[in-house]
Amino acid sequence: xxxxxxxxxxxxxxxxxxxxxxxxxxxxxxxxxxxxxxxxxxxxxxxxxxxxxxxxxxxxxxxxxxxxxxxxxxxxxxxxxxxxxxxxxxx
Length: 91
Description:
single chain, P-loop_NTPase, DNA mismatch repair proteins mutS family domain-containing protein
């Protein structure tokens, strides 16, 4: 469980996170690894650059997963060609 101050979806390295040392059931909405790096004393610019690079990787991974799903659906003979076109346009 944690409290997030100055929540910033565009640059989470700017957030202030207080870890409450309490376990709570459920899924964590996002990773706080960049904040952990700040706590460890790693230079803020290094953390921000790491975040920017991780976004590039995540974006490529997201496209790769979409393409894999598209290939999987294309192999399914019950999928309509029009549905495949919609999936391609969504990428």
